Prior knowledge:
Layout: H1 2-12, H2 17-20, H3 28-39, H4 44-54, H5 57-76, H6 85-98, H7 102-111
Helix pairs in contact: 1-5, 3-4, 6-7
Amino acid sequence: MRAFSYLLDTSKHPRADEFWGDETQSGHFDERFKGLREIGYESPQELNIWCECYLNRLQWRRLKTMLRMKRHRKAAQPVTISINQDAYKILKGVADKEGCTLSEAIEILHKD
Length: 112
């Protein structure tokens, strides 16, 4: 779970105070993260409740921004596939005819 990992990473980072502010100096900080570790990766609902209890508005925004950026980066990454020669010839023909890439040819064929 990305949010869980991000929160734990920020707690261990040498510049943790940039995310957590003065809270890193308080004794409650370690207790708070003990509770987060107990929740673990298994329960998004409990993690959400933990975040609502312990994150301020700025920290929530940073967490949501990080998740959005990771989702966007993941969606933009290319994927490699293997196809047979006949499928390649069909895609190549559509791509040449339309003046587009093979990926765009797949999208064109999917729309039809």
